Amino acid sequence: xxxxxCANPALDRLLIMEELSLNEVNRASQVTETVGGKGINVxxxxxxxxxNPRLLIFEGGSTGEKIKKGLEKENFLFTSWPSDETRxxxxxxxxxxxxxxxxxxxxxxxxxxxxxxxxHFLENNLRKxxxxxxxxxxxxxxxxxxxxxxxxxxxxxGAFSVLDTSGEPLRRALPAAPFMIKPNVREAQExxxxxxxxWEDKIKAVKIFQNQGVELVILSDGxxxxxxxxxxxxWKVGMKKEVxxxxxxxxxxxTLVGVVVEYLEKGKSIxxxxxxxxxxxxxxxxxPGGGIFDEEKAEELEKDxxxxxxxx
Length: 312
Fold this sequence. Notes:
10 helices
């Protein structure tokens, strides 16, 4: 079973326009609303690959009701606990420049009783061999070591914890040694305190995380691909030739995480999992929504994936 915690879900409001003009009245040509948040994007990618994850969310207010109705419409299995009003994320996509501007509202205030209910649920429901994905930011009121506590529960239960967050929650969780992390270059730089630009820098970074007890580290760098380390071996994953992705980069990293976890849960090799994750993440850029991709496009892209094992 794959559990996915999305502690800070959002209603994603996408505004598509030709180009954003500052200090001017702007008009969108298209407006869409989808259920979002990193964890929900991850679960959506898992579901598209045939999995049936259980989503765990904190939600509240009228926006929270929209979130739950959206999840029901997508046939998600989910458990929710109450919070203050769920946030709305506004995403402005410019067709001309392919730029994205993301405006995140403050997350809701979550009570101690809600976080305790989530802890107790996982204590009672996690089983050996399960996966627990901890994805995204933590809302107000949730202690910064919350992910660390959940990683410790996973270890006691014999489950695999997967962490995709940033800032202080990431720093607090690393000493608990999750099974897998998926930082991007900026997040890794913040966590490790040094600039990461070259492939040598990336290899150095994943080795540091590995030495902290993380078994699988996937360091992503957009169209430049990923560097990954798993049980002492290092891989560089990219494209054989330059491929122009679509204009929608939001949720591509979440797609990668979801597909890798689904493949590992099915018993696929690390090479197969990385190739599928990278190709599906790139395929996601052609759609305005996290965790959404065309299977044929992903398979086409996967033919051009190059995986190199790097000798230490």
